[in-house]
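Schema walk-through. Below, the input block comes first and the output block second. Nothing else is stored per chain. Lengths vary across the set, and this one has 299 residues.
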Amino acid sequence: MNTDFIKGVVVPILTPVDAEERIDEARLRDQVDYVIDGGVSGILAFGSNGEFYMVEEDEMERGLKIMADQAAGRVPVYFGIGAISTKKCCRLARMAAANGADGVSVLQPMFLKPTREELFRHFKAIADSVPHTPMLLYNNPGRVGYTLTADLIDDLAHQVDNIVGMKDTSGDITLTSEFIRRTRDIDFKVFGGKDTLLYASLCHGAVGGVCTAANFMPELITDIYNKFVAGDLQGSLEAQFKLNPVRLAMDPASFPVAAKDMALLRGRDMGAPYRPNLLTPEGPVKEGFRRTMRAAGLI
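--- output ---
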């Protein structure tokens, strides 16, 4: 299975919606072009910032078709899966494979705290449902309440042929490096999941990052990656330091509203989130957005 394309900055693309909470096709197509023009290496449909937890399955299918059509092979399009039920995850994986996804990314089940064996069987069943589709694991302990362990990743990577990589959003660089160290013999692709740790993840051998900030400042976060792979380590680190204050300014806002607010400050109207009452009000938080974005030369 060819996995050479799994690298670089992948954007968990925002899902623009209209007043009826339907995907806004024109805005979504425009966002696909914007992030590709900004230099991203891939698009993740319905990741955390894509509000997968709010979108109905038929809308997910419609949205994926739009994104795959608009990307038109310029970059790979991955499909994010965050369901608790193994059966639902398998259904979504098959739908994604049938509608042009180049790979699927699967979050560990939230709310539950499965045993190691239950997690292994869960992920293997999903991978087996789409044996010819690359599958990435998504470790996000801050959102689901527990972490995937290095032992589990080691076993899944070595025993399930189409589990070929992962995104680690733990923020624990030691854990990220363990995922990389223990799977480097099979070229398992590990992405960093924290925008503020992209440079650090690359230093430990990550192939790239899945980066929220690419939705509204793709030129800055791709600069970190491009300079790193070109050997300009100091330039890459400086780009990381330029990005970090903007990314950290998002933290006091409700998730995932901040990314849409920051996009709007750059003149990109992504519409309201599915829960429009969560829009960040004017005040210190939004002023923090403006201050840090001005300092980075973004507005």
